[in-house]
Design brief:
NAD(P)-bd_dom_sf, Rossmann fold, SDR family oxidoreductase, NmrA-type_oxidoreductase, NmrA-like, 13 helices, alpha/beta, two-stranded antiparallel sheet
Length: 287
């Protein structure tokens, strides 16, 4: 049986949707915080456990009879390392055979500007030290995040103004990452495995601007911003300084080439080429 944590989040939903096409729903369990958001899973025959990463009793209960746990990274960035450790500890205590984790694909964790990303690699280290067989999914930035980065529909009027420089990202759709993860979970890998899930090509924000121009028929221009100016603008718009610094650091890591990684793993797990930039943006902007 496979237990998916964070099962009603966007990635968890994508993974379970694919798992339901590959195995019986009685072989899938979901760990969720809100029962009402999981009613549709119950209706499909998925076993649902309610609890929190900080609630060790609920974790112990959810682990019973589980062979593989997919730990989807928590959203509480300040506390998620300890929360992830609770999940790993519960899995080990229950005799789970394998733990999988959704980490991040970044070129050099030692030189990150956004230090909160270090939590992913601390979690990886804890998993490796647990003695459990593991599958690590090092995921690139979701293509689905681009509308949020560039201001949604407003991008067609304002253009793109970010401190990303010439930085490139091998963007991939979240739905395809979910499909690849599900495929890996049912493969029964032997030993421990690390997959780096990226698109087949990396793109700059100049490429994104060109794709949006072709998509809309309106000229979209990317103008690289200075980090300090960009951060000050976020604060002026009402964002707390900590959040503004975090967002700026995240984009500066792109400028520094942290996400300019291309791996064949996503293509191999999908059995086809991942969706390229223009086609992906067309999907995202026509929903």
């Amino acid at each position: 049986m496979i237990l998916v944590t964070g099962a009603t989040g966007q990635l968890g939903t994508a993974v379970i949707r694919q798992l339901l096409q590959k195995v019986s729903p009685t072989q899938i369990a979901a760990f969720v915080r809100d029962q009402t958001k999981a009613d549709h899973l119950v209706d499909q025959g998925v076993i649902v456990h309610v609890g929190y990463y900080d609630d060790k009793i609920s974790l112990d209960r959810a682990m019973q009879g589980i062979e593989t746990v997919l730990l989807i990274a928590g959203t509480d960035e300040q506390n998620r390392v300890s929360q992830h450790q609770h999940v790993v500890d519960a899995a080990r205590k229950a005799g789970v055979q394998r733990i999988a984790y959704t980490s991040r694909a970044l070129k050099d964790p030692a030189t990150l500007v956004n230090q909160l990303m270090q939590g992913h690699f601390q979690t990886e280290d804890y998993i490796k030290a647990s003695g459990l067989a593991y599958t690590l999914f090092q995921n690139i930035l979701y293509m689905d995040a681009i509308p949020q980065f560039v201001g949604g529909e407003a991008v067609f009027e304002r253009g793109i103004n970010l401190p990303a420089g010439q930085g490139r990202v091998a963007l991939a759709l979240r739905s395809e990452m979910g499909e690849a993860i599900a495929n890996a979970l049912v493969k029964n890998d032997q030993g421990s495995t690390t997959y780096r899930l990226t698109g087949s090509e990396s793109y700059s924000f100049y490429d994104i601007a060109d794709a949006l121009t072709k998509l809309s028929g309106q000229s979209v221009v990317y103008s690289p911003a200075e980090p300090a100016t960009f951060e000050a603008g976020l604060i002026q718009r009402g964002l707390p300084e900590v959040m503004a610094r975090r967002i700026t650091g995240f984009i500066m890591d792109i400028a520094n080439g942290q996400e300019d990684l291309v791996s064949p793993d996503l293509e191999r797990l999908l059995g086809r080429k991942p969706t390229p930039l223009y086609e992906g943006l067309r999907l995202l902007y026509t929903r």
